[in-house]
Amino acid sequence: MDKYSTKWLKVSEPFPHVLHVELARAPVNAFSQEFWQSYGRLFDSIVEDGLDVRAAVVTSVFPKIFTAGLDLGDAGSLGSDGADTTRDGARSSLAMRKKLLEFQYAIGAPERCPFPVIAAVHGHVIGLGVDMISACDIRYAAADSNFAIKEVDIGLAADIGSLAFLPHITGNHSLVRELAYTARTFSAAEADKIGLLSKVVPGSKDEVTKEALELARFISTKSPIAVSGSKHLITHARDHSVPDNLAYTGAWNAHALMTDDILENLRATKAKTKANFAPLKVPSRFAGAKL
């Protein structure tokens, strides 16, 4: 996976069709502009290249921290390098808005993937870290994890995803507002209680990484058509009414039900063997290459 690993991202394939993406910018995974751009490009490139990835796990290489959030010493990480102070306020604001939308698009890359992305966090998950995991499909946390929507302590509202995702994820507007207004730290147990997590794993980095990778491995054995379709339809349901989603699902599955994966599942079940599913997309530039 050398092609996809970068200066601060380590990418490996611990199981067939499963990627492990590790954040690795010492000392605390603070996100500079280069870092968040690289993070977004990674997921988009995997999809564009047509690699047969069926699940991915995002972790940190550092035992005590997932990410400290933004690198406050990097102007680009805050979008301030997009502000042209030689022009009037409106034009400077438009430039700033463009940078913020690029930032949102990069951090939201996991949601655009046709395969599930699992966040496995441990230690401190601060500011941007909450934005990042909110855009992932599934969130596991080690028992030693703690979280904070920290942006208000910098002097701004969180603007990369937390305030958009968390009300939908938790269903608790009161608590989301409390956490955003106060920037207080909350534990893995509280994050689990409010629905931000699907599992709290006893231990720390190694334990939560192992659990998340095993989940990804199991998901990778399922029909890619079924899993990717489920992901797409769940996201659509979040953003639409029940009648709209049911109508959309009917149209979607009218086509998806023609998949060969159904016959392959039946064959494998009857023969008591492992199903062998085709990739969602035939690789173009890397046809025939392994991950």
From TrEMBL:
<dbReference type="Pfam" id="PF00378">
    <property type="entry name" value="ECH_1"/>
</dbReference>
<comment type="similarity">
    <text>Belongs to the enoyl-CoA hydratase/isomerase family.</text>
</comment>
<protein>
    <submittedName>
        <fullName>Uncharacterized protein</fullName>
    </submittedName>
</protein>
<keyword id="KW-0276">Fatty acid metabolism</keyword>
<keyword id="KW-0443">Lipid metabolism</keyword>
<comment type="pathway">
    <text>Lipid metabolism; fatty acid beta-oxidation.</text>
</comment>
<dbReference type="InterPro" id="IPR029045">
    <property type="entry name" value="ClpP/crotonase-like_dom_sf"/>
</dbReference>
<dbReference type="InterPro" id="IPR045002">
    <property type="entry name" value="Ech1-like"/>
</dbReference>
<dbReference type="InterPro" id="IPR014748">
    <property type="entry name" value="Enoyl-CoA_hydra_C"/>
</dbReference>
<dbReference type="GO" id="GO:0051750">
    <property type="term" value="F:delta(3,5)-delta(2,4)-dienoyl-CoA isomerase activity"/>
</dbReference>
<dbReference type="GO" id="GO:0005739">
    <property type="term" value="C:mitochondrion"/>
</dbReference>
<dbReference type="GO" id="GO:0006635">
    <property type="term" value="P:fatty acid beta-oxidation"/>
</dbReference>
<keyword id="KW-0413">Isomerase</keyword>
<dbReference type="InterPro" id="IPR001753">
    <property type="entry name" value="Enoyl-CoA_hydra/iso"/>
</dbReference>
